[in-house]
Amino acid sequence: MQDARGNDVDLSIYKRKVLLIVNVASQCGLTNSNYKELTQLYEKYKDKEL
Questions:
Q1: Residue 12 confidence class, pLDDT cut points 50, 70, 90
Q2: Which of 5, 11, 24, 35 is most open to solvent, judged by the fewest CB atoms within 10 Å of its CB?
Q3: From 9, 11, 24, 28, active-site residue
Q4: pLDDT at 18 over 90
Q5: In whole angstroms, how far apart are CA 19 and each of 13, 14, 49?
Q6: Residue 21 above 90 pLDDT?
């Protein structure tokens, strides 16, 4: 898998962790609301060491 900059990402570093992968189209009308919801999810779970 690659990150937003095209760098390879080794997903094995996330073994036994919860990982949310989001594929968005930047010109889609739903993108901004999706980012808002993703930010809320992050804030809710960021300190839970998932």
A1: very high
A2: 5
A3: 28
A4: no
A5: 11, 7, 11
A6: no
